[in-house]
Automatic annotation (TrEMBL), chains A, B:
<keyword id="KW-0443">Lipid metabolism</keyword>
<comment type="similarity">
    <text>Belongs to the acyl-CoA oxidase family.</text>
</comment>
<feature type="domain" description="Acyl-CoA oxidase C-alpha1">
    <location>
        <begin position="274"/>
        <end position="436"/>
    </location>
</feature>
<dbReference type="Pfam" id="PF14749">
    <property type="entry name" value="Acyl-CoA_ox_N"/>
</dbReference>
<dbReference type="GO" id="GO:0005504">
    <property type="term" value="F:fatty acid binding"/>
</dbReference>
<dbReference type="GO" id="GO:0033540">
    <property type="term" value="P:fatty acid beta-oxidation using acyl-CoA oxidase"/>
</dbReference>
<dbReference type="InterPro" id="IPR002655">
    <property type="entry name" value="Acyl-CoA_oxidase_C"/>
</dbReference>
<dbReference type="GO" id="GO:0055088">
    <property type="term" value="P:lipid homeostasis"/>
</dbReference>
<dbReference type="Pfam" id="PF01756">
    <property type="entry name" value="ACOX"/>
</dbReference>
<dbReference type="InterPro" id="IPR055060">
    <property type="entry name" value="ACOX_C_alpha1"/>
</dbReference>
<dbReference type="InterPro" id="IPR046373">
    <property type="entry name" value="Acyl-CoA_Oxase/DH_mid-dom_sf"/>
</dbReference>
<feature type="binding site">
    <location>
        <position position="138"/>
    </location>
    <ligand>
        <name>FAD</name>
    </ligand>
</feature>
<feature type="domain" description="Acyl-coenzyme A oxidase N-terminal">
    <location>
        <begin position="16"/>
        <end position="132"/>
    </location>
</feature>
<keyword id="KW-0276">Fatty acid metabolism</keyword>
<feature type="binding site">
    <location>
        <position position="177"/>
    </location>
    <ligand>
        <name>FAD</name>
    </ligand>
</feature>
<protein>
    <submittedName>
        <fullName>ACOX2 oxidase</fullName>
    </submittedName>
</protein>
<dbReference type="InterPro" id="IPR012258">
    <property type="entry name" value="Acyl-CoA_oxidase"/>
</dbReference>
Length: 658, 658
């Protein structure tokens, strides 16, 4: 039975939840496929996450391996393939709680970096799981700056082998997933030396464990890096190599080869490889970043209509906490952001598909723009969504802090997305470098990529809004965002030039501008996200109430951004103080409007109870009953040896006299 | 041996670290006492936290109980008493990793709420640990709003007993520390009923477990609430009462008594009790909030001078990451905040001591101000410090994400401080209510407490700064903060009045202003923190470089607040855009200045390696070696059954055909 406090929220939906779900899925057929996958996975007890919050790291690892192996069977059974329409829903249905994710990266890197011969040899072995692969790039002392990697691979012409070494502790491979306990092989990135000359970083296939008994190969020291904030199910590993010899054929050689005599030969363009790395940043957004935020919103919003606290009106029942403006102000902007980023993800996917088609035709012109967008949006979205999940957690008070709410593990997991696949600050500075370059180019009258043509159109006007309703006009707020992005880019470009002209060295000048460059990059992405949301709303069908509610969310996303960052808009007087008061008024008004549809808006994400795995967020809203039932199963409710050992002697005073 | 990259940072300190340490401790004698306590605790293997990151919740609980019992012996051995000068350092030295903290709350509540007779009976029993106490207030469905608690205590005149019940699941006690597995007794807060009439919430001493065999008492269902984001060492519990009878004497009756015939008698003033609750919020700041931030700063800053990444200057060695402006901008404001809040903590302690003396003299005039300050600062400091710890964690990249860095557990623990002892938003609204009241009173010419007299002095001037150096003048920035606090309070008061005058009901009007009221309360606290820091610096001795470096930190704290919140200062034109650019310039300049002393500034916090318990933050900076050594000890480096069960069959293809 559904908690009536939650049930009543669904009766007043201003739109069709099923229609919105289809929009999010990309069509009703997709919804059906998704649901079929979810049903198949969730009805299979091997994939259960029921005891997850009670398990140790060792237990989580074992479960993830069990699931990964079982998944292979399941896919065969169900007729699912890696290229089929179901595939993208499988990982989501498993909530990522499965091993051998790096095995796929191992395969992809061979496909992208290997010669045809290497692909023909290794891919079938990997596909049939005759080996388990990993991908060993990051080192203890080296992450982002690949050129700094210290592992060495010295070519020995006599034996036609590469000799791999970890010359010092900072060169130890550290973090690779599946490597701590599972992998038999890995792709090691190392500095290539031939006849004493360094040729830079290259990839090598290295066997690290016996295929017979899984013991470490000679010269290999490997293990698990230990406890982390999350990802208990993954055996992130370390790897130390001592004179490990591999045959010449094991250097992945699509782009460069070492001939038997030690001649180093470059071949082809590495640009497509570069494109691949760029797409990884986009591909993680949906599963690793948006899904957790959507889950957190679902949990926190459902809980906030079931939880009652204090009285809003004297003499009445305690109020639902979502009726408090402060609670709305915490949660509803996160909900709006989840939708905004869902739509920008669609936009980016489309852009990258286009980019891919161009690259197939050997046209690499789009690469710099794609790199800038993927870097910037990876950083902005992971940052925004991580903060959003934390807000949802805190908005649920003490119960949000219980692992049983599901929110802590969403938070500790999404947090990692700010760090992996490019640390966010560094990525934003990549975007900023592109912006500055394009800004200079525009100023010099040169053509620039479509996403930055607006930089040339510097307008010194003022925001034309006359009353608070004007701020519900997408033209008004989109233009304001554009203005800020241009101002931050142009003013930082000017500072940079001033510094250089005053004699500061280029790299020092750049460093002295980085705090502001980061701001400019964020403003650029924020502008594009707002513009894209507004354009998406414009194109929606006007029936079923979908366009109307999406318009509200778009307005909220835009106005929340202004309200939270008023200085950027006030700075040069583009927006006046009086206009800022209008923004605040419209923004607060919107909270009350969207609050009415908050539950249907999270219902449209269509998470099952099993996928939420939350005592607070279930569809029926029976929060307290579930918390109680769940807590009783905790291993902390078993007898503790602490009683016999310490409590009993203490209470019975048999402890040596205190 | 100290990592030379860390060692070199210490050689250039602009001030005496020992002198600064003495300032923070409140004198060199205090430093000596602190160090003696730390030495005694850390040299005792029972108190070791060495394996903490590898332990399960059950193991953590057992260790905490062991430590709590051992601590009693230790105190006897060392001659430490609860009233001695060592006491405040013990908890810090244990990093709070000890059980029976609620036993002290149990004792305090009896001392404050109990009659002399009750005190005489229960305090000796508790002191001698003939029972283990807890404190059962919060319920599954009720936290902040005490009047909403649902547990009932019905007086039975026939038997002279109270009959305690949990009438529904939402009334179950939930969260009390030490109650899940340890406590034999607890203070239960329940609605008192006599002859069918409800007299509101009262405290009752209830035995929940047998003193003989620790089994649950008849009618009592209790256990552990299961896994949480942190506090694995604490057995937060649940408690369900079914017709549990306790003698009439067990209602704590300092302020109200139920006579044998059921007559309800109120006596004395509860104001002093109210004061006690207020002081708890202040007392947690130092141990639970400042210490974690200081530890996080120590870890992140030491790591940031040892970690090298990318090249700042072409052709040179990779740079220390603390030399990047973006890294400085993440960490140094947190360091400044740690100092700012240390000094505001001193200020609050002093104010509360004064308040206590007044209250002893039956003068309760200071109570509203103390309540507003304790609420506001509890919220502002916990929020700021929690965000600060998270920034430190993220600034350490992947290694920060490892539990072995110590940062994840600092974060997950400090996060709870935003929720317990009053949820932050609710506390800020309490402060705001006080501000609005005082603002109205000032306007009506009535006297107001000292901390808010500034509200009357609304100035419509402009910031007089003419160049970036002017913003290093405390008068300039303190006045700017004051201006913002006044503006936010007065504009929200005006909005509130307008709404009410336009016919909106008072409670609705209040709710519609809460987002802005929260802003006003924060601005008030921020102003006081800046002002207090500036005044503290003013009073410091000018020798040994202490005043100079503290002045820089004060400037940074103030300018970072403006830089991060420019809109508030720009809004009504008090600060112009040109002035804001000066703020930015001065702020960024300061980062480079303070960066030079960053390591000595964290060294002054004087954390031992054992108390940091961090592979990244040790005094010698041997980060990589320590991470590797530590990881090898992880239980995840033991043989996993997953190999025999799943990996071997998979690799050997003995699994049923895939």
């Amino acid at each position: 039975s559904v908690n009536p406090d939650l049930g009543s929220e669904r009766q007043t939906a201003s739109f069709s939840v099923e229609k919105l779900m289809a929009l999010l899925d990309g069509g009703t057929e997709q919804t059906q496929i998704r649901r079929a996958v979810v049903e198949a996975i969730e009805s299979d007890p091997v994939f259960s996450r029921e005891n997850q919050y009670f398990q140790t790291q060792n237990e989580r690892y074992e479960a993830a391996v069990r699931k990964a192996v079982h998944l292979q069977k399941k896919m065969n059974e169900m007729g699912w393939t890696e290229n089929g329409p179901e595939y993208k829903y499988i990982y989501r249905a498993l909530s990522g709680d499965v091993a051998f994710l790096l095995h796929r990266v191992f395969m992809r890197s061979i496909s992208v970096l290997g010669s045809d011969k290497q692909i023909a040899k290794w891919i079938p072995l990997a596909t049939q799981h005759k080996l388990i692969g990993s991908y060993a790039q990051t080192e203890l002392g080296h992450g982002t700056y690949l050129q700094g990697l210290e592992t060495t691979a010295v070519f020995d012409t006599a034996t036609q082998e590469f000799i791999l070494n970890t010359p010092k502790i900072s060169a130890m491979k550290w973090w690779p997933g599946d490597m701590g306990r599972s992998a038999t092989h890995t792709v090691v990135f190392a500095q290539l030396y031939i006849h004493g000359k360094c040729y830079g970083i290259h990839p090598f296939i290295v066997q690290i464990r016996s295929l017979q008994d899984h013991s470490l190969c000679p010269g290999v020291i490997a293990g698990d890096i230990g406890p982390k904030m999350n990802f208990e199910h993954i055996d992130n590993g370390y790897l130390l190599l001592k004179n490990v010899r591999i045959p010449r054929e094991n250097m992945l050689s699509k782009f460069c080869e070492v001939r038997p005599d030690g001649t180093y030969v470059k071949q082809g363009s590495q640009k497509i490889n570069y494109f691949t790395m760029t797409t990884v940043r986009i591909s993680l957004i949906s599963d690793e970043v948006l899904t957790p935020l959507m889950k957190a919103c679902t949990i926190a919003i459902r809980y906030s209509v079931v939880r009652r606290q204090s009285k809003l009106k004297p003499g009445e029942q305690e109020a639902k906490i979502l009726d408090y403006q402060t609670q709305q102000e915490k949660l509803l902007p996160q909900l709006a952001a989840a939708y905004a980023f869902h739509f920008i993800n669609d936009y980016l996917q489309e852009l990258f598909n286009r980019g891919y088609r161009e690259i197939q035709r050997k046209n690499f012109d789009m690469l710099p723009e794609l790199h800038a967008l993927s870097s910037g949006f990876k950083a902005v979205i992971t940052q925004h969504c991580t903060a959003g999940v934390e807000i949802c957690l805190r908005a649920c008070g003490g119960h949000g802090y219980s692992l049983l709410s599901g929110l802590p593990s969403l938070y500790t997991k999404i947090l990692a997305s700010c760090i992996y696949e490019g640390e966010n600050t560094i990525l934003l500075l990549q975007t900023a470098r592109f912006l500055i370059k394009c800004f200079m180019a525009s100023n010099a009258g040169q053509p620039v990529p479509p996403s930055v043509t607006y930089l040339a159109a510097v307008k010194h006007g003022k925001c034309p809004a006359k009353n608070k309703l004007d701020f519900l006009s997408p033209d008004i707020y989109t233009e304001a965002y554009q203005h800020v992005a241009v101002r931050l880019t142009s003013s930082t470009a000017a500072k940079l030039q001033d510094l250089i002209q005053s004699g500061v060295k280029k790299h020092d000048a750049w460093n002295q501008c980085t705090v502001q460059l980061v701001q400019a990059a964020k403003a650029h992405c924020h502008y594009i996200a707002v513009k894209n949301f507004a354009e998406t709303v414009e194109k929606l069908e006007t029936k079923a109430g979908i366009q109307k509610i999406m318009k509200h969310l778009c307005d909220l996303f835009a106005l929340h951004g202004i309200f939270s960052n008023t200085g950027a808009f006030l700075h040069d007087g583009y927006t006046s103080a009086a206009q800022m008061d209008m923004v605040t008024a419209s923004y607060l008004d919107l909270l009350a409007v969207i609050r009415k549809d908050a539950v249907p808006l999270v219902d449209a994400f269509d998470f099952t109870d099993k996928s939420l795995n939350s005592a607070l967020g279930s569809y029926d809203g029976q929060v307290y009953q579930r918390l109680y039932e769940w807590a009783q199963k905790s291993p902390t409710n078993q007898m503790s040896p602490a009683y016999e050992r310490y409590l009993k002697p203490l209470l019975h005073n048999t402890l040596s006299k205190l």
